[in-house]
Structures are given as C-alpha cells and as structure tokens.
Design brief:
With about 375 residues, this protein is α+β, with helices and mostly antiparallel strands. About 25% of the residues lie in helices and about 25% in strands.
Length: about 375
C-alpha cells in the first residue's frame, strides 16, 4: 500500500488511516497531520471530494435548525467561523452573501419566531428578525412577505477548491492519499486494524471512518454498531430570471419535512439555483436526471419568488444525503460520532451542515484518535 515519495508510510503499516477523502475526511487528515501523525487517506473514487462533497450546494450555514447543544449545532456554529478563517487565509473563492428565511403568512411568522429563538439558543451569530419593509428593502424583487430571519453570516464557498486546499495542507504536513482504494474487509484488534482494499492491505494503529454515504457499511466492516444511513436524494434546477436577488432565500421549513424546502441559492458566478428537495431513495449511487420534477419545482419556486414561467427552470443535477432519519420518522437525527471497537472512530450521517462543520468536526475527532 505504500506510495512513493519522502512522506510515504513505511511498509504496509501507518499510524492512522482515514477512510474517505471528502471535505470531512480531508479536514481530519489535515488536523491529524498538523499534529504530527503519520496519515494515509483511502478514497474509493479517483480523486478527493468526488462523493457527497462533489454534489454539495456550497452553502456556509449559520446553524438555525439544529437542537441547541447538539453536535450539529455546535459544529456548525464553530465550523462556520473556522471555514471563513480558512477560506480567507488561503484565498478560497467564497462570498458572505447573507440569507433570508421568509414568512409568507401569519402562521409562518409564528414558526419563524420559534426558529429565531432556536437559532439564538444554538449560538447562531447575529441573526435578526426583520419586518416586511426590511425584507422589501433587501430583496425588492420578492413578493410581499410578513417577516424574515436575517442571517448575515450565511454564505457560499467553492467546494472543490476547499476540499483540494484541505488535501494540499494535509499532504504538506506528510499525509499520503491513495485513490481507488475502497475498503473491502478488516480485522480489528485492540491496538491495530488490518484493512483489505482494492489497492492492497495496510495495517493502521488507528482508523477514522469518514466514508460519507457508505460510513455505516464501513463501520459494520470494522465491527461497530452504527446507525443505518437512509439515502435521501435532492435535485436542483437552474433559474433564469430578470429579477435580481442579493441573498440566499429560504422558505419556512414545513413541520416534519425531511428537507428545508426548495430554496434559492446563488453560485459564485451569480447564477441562481433552486433546491434541493428531499426524496428517500433505495440506491446510493443513482444520479440519473429527474426532469420530471419540473412541475413540483416550478410550484415551489412560484410560492417563494412569485410568478415564473416553467421554461425559466432547467434541470441541473442532484446529490444524495446520508441521513440517519428514516422515512416516516418525525425527528431529525444528530451526527453520529462513535468510537470503537478497537482504535476506530466513526463519523456517520454527516449530511448538512457537514460542509460547514468539517473543520470543527476535525477539531473534535483529532483528540479521539488513539
């Protein structure tokens, strides 16, 4: 398994193996390598960030929706701070655009007030309830709204550039990346783990499982009782419009919904994107187009933004979230951070806000690695 180069592990043994080179795996590899650990990252795809991270909307979240004190809430708020700091220091393309969560009627305004209270309790920074006039001032092309929650620190980031920068930093501190190295079997002992991969075998003093959509399967190979992942697909449509929006615009999340509702995001080139929706699916790797969702997206976009013609929307693509909340379950589940058996740490169910939380998760995980 050893790769060529001065920073390669010696023979087939390494101090720490990180399974998965998405944004979370690369952040953990960077933190461990900076701490002086010998790190090998195993990635089943051909490059870093080719799994869940590659289909992320790139939103830097503020931490509005998660239970106060939960792992999602704590790592989102801390991760946002760390992510902006990282992006600014390394000139990663990003923009602090701000976000409006809008309430269209009296019932939604009541729910919005509860969301604002939850955001404050979770530590979300500088959020503010604003009235109809302020919404109209900020977004004059929106239809009239009752109120909104203004989140000034929500933003967007170039996901590929971010993941690549984390890999580069990890490699600069001695980490080695091995692509097309899916893990097929493992023997877990008290102080080491033997892994069988498509690239050969390797023995690790510790293993960090950051395998995204497949983290529950990897955990099972390593003998851990991790919660099951329920793949949940989200599709996106481009929006072509003469309207000009300056901020991300979200509807109030419907009670019990698996997602936040179809919302408007803006990419770094200024293009508008609608989505994602939330649809539980059986396959973790079916990214086939879903143009048949046009009518549903058109209806959702019209409710949020006002009258639109169907031909203003064009299908863009989809991603699949590794949700721990199953179909029909009433409550969202927190990130699962598990240790053992043996010298193993598992991150399971790292869906949104996983991108925002990545650097904070790395802070938490590094001290847990034997």
């Amino acid at each position: 398994m050893a790769e060529s180069g001065d920073n390669s592990p010696q023979g087939d043994r390494v101090q720490v193996v990180v399974i998965g080179a998405g944004v979370v795996g690369c952040a953990i590899a960077s933190a461990l390598a900076r701490g002086g650990r010998e790190v090998l990252v195993l990635e089943r795809e051909a490059r870093e960030g080719a799994g869940v991270s590659s289909r992320n909307s790139g939103v830097i979240h503020s931490g509005l929706y998660y239970a106060p004190g939960s792992l999602k809430a704590r790592t989102c708020v801390r991760g946002q701070e760390l992510l902006y700091r990282w992006a600014e220091a390394r000139k990663i393309p990003h923009a602090r655009l701000g976000k409006l969560v809008v309430a269209r009627d009296a019932d939604e305004e009541i729910a919005l007030q509860a969301l604002a209270a939850n955001a404050r309790a979770s530590g979300a920074r500088d959020t503010e309830l604003v009235g109809a006039a302020e919404v109209a001032r900020r977004e004059p092309d929106l239809p009239p709204m009752r109120a909104a929650l203004w989140c000034p620190h929500t933003g967007i980031v170039d996901v590929h550039a971010l993941v690549y920068s984390l890999r580069v930093d990890a490699e600069a501190h001695g980490a080695v990346f091995s692509e097309r190295a899916a893990v097929h079997a493992a023997e877990v002992h008290a102080q080491e783990v033997r892994l069988v991969t498509t690239r050969g075998e390797v023995t690790a003093g510790a293993v960090v499982n950051a395998a995204g959509l497949y983290a529950d399967e990897v955990a099972a190979l390593l003998g851990a009782r991790a919660p099951a992942i329920h793949p949940c697909r989200g599709d996106y449509f481009w929006l072509r419009t003469r309207a000009r929006y300056r901020h991300l615009i979200y509807p109030m999340k419907a009670r019990g919904a698996a997602g936040l509702g179809v919302h408007l995001t803006i990419d770094l080139a200024g293009a508008y994107r609608l989505g994602p929706d939330a649809e539980y699916v059986g396959a973790r790797d079916d990214f086939s187009p879903a143009e048949h969702k046009l009518a549903l997206f058109h209806a959702a976009a019209t409710r949020l933004l006002g009258p639109l013609a169907p031909d203003q929307l064009a299908y863009e693509g989809c991603g699949i979230r590794p949700k721990l909340r199953g179909p029909g379950e009433a409550e969202e589940q927190d990130f699962a951070l598990l240790t053992g058996p043996g010298p193993c740490v598992h991150l399971v169910g790292i869906e949104s806000p996983g991108l925002t939380a990545a650097l904070a998760l790395a802070e938490l995980v590094a001290p847990l690695v034997p």
